[in-house]
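Summary for the steering committee. One of the milestones for this cycle was to obtain a three-dimensional model of the protein with magnesium ion bound, which we needed before selecting residues for the alanine scan. The sequence and ligand used are listed below.
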Amino acid sequence: MRIVDVRAKTVRVETNMFNARGSRVNSAATVVAAITDVIRNGKPVIGFSFSATGFQPPTHQLNERFIPKLLQMGEEELAIDPRYFDPAATLKALKKNEKLGGDGERATAIGTLECAVWDVVAKLAQVPVYRLAADRYRGGRVADKVECYVGGGWYSPDKNVKDLSDEVQKYLDMGYRTVKIKVGGAPLVDDLKRVDAALAVVGDPARLAVDANSGIAPGRLPEFAQALKNYGLRWFEEPVHPNDYQANAEFIAMYGNPVATGENQFSFEELRNLARYGGMRPGTDILQWDIPHAYGMHEAANIVRMLAEFGWSTASMVPHGGNQISLNASAAFGFGACESYPDVFGVLSGYADDLEVVDGHIAIGQWEGFGFEGQAALFAKMRELVPEYD
Ligand code: MG
């Protein structure tokens, strides 16, 4: 059993939304197909993955470095037979000869590819990835449902407060209960009107979060902390630059209520620095690293174990990225919730088509691998990589 070919390409979706840094939504991702020599029903078993959204697609790094590296691995490094699969060895081999530090674009490339390997192995075992991971890392315990919140409330030209209220209402009508909106992209007085409007719709501050995308100038942070601290919101996300641990700790001291961050931490070491120096409080604050953006599933298991030593429970971990990867990871590791972006990123949004959100939760489904096959629009893009097997 071998992976004999791996293909990667970029998929882009046009949007005009922006956040506190003025950044347009980066709705581009790398989709990956890993073709094996195992034939079922006349066709090869193929693993798929994608790099999720919110970060530059690592297509170049994959094609240039990591796919050739994976294809050259011996069986001691990459055994896709479920009986011999050793994700630690595969991750080590993918990191071989890489200089330490500066993990970002490398971590995203490796994590995306590593997830394609998990998709292959789970398909060969004919189980979901959450089952394969839970058996390996958590004594087989799987969450039968996962809380799911909406990361929405972006700014866009011509969008007013009424439009924001309608957007939040739309999410509630879809079955979601907790919604996150952007802050910091407007004067504070206007942002407070947006927060008030969203709150009037969700009805409970514990069901509303805000996300500054590290885009509030340091001099404006005290007024934001002061103005928002008494709302009792679910969390305040990414108040400062992701690598400025001291500033994060200072914001937490000013704000007091739950703070969430970590989507721009790309490695075990960066998350350990956040736990050590970021002022983050286990049991209060929320850690949000993105599974395929931080070396994938096996590194997630390493990170969970490390964070436990700092007193963190997986209930306080809420992975960035709303997709089948974060959903499988949440069910496997027992994460506190999972993000969702209905409609926000086009085909790169959402979960398997038959999954329903009921009272803010998704009951976990049955599938092989990550279950991308159940998400028709995204899977059509993945299949474009392997047209000869249609
Ligand atoms: Mg965010």
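Key point for the committee: The CA atoms of residues 383 and 390 lie 8 Å apart.
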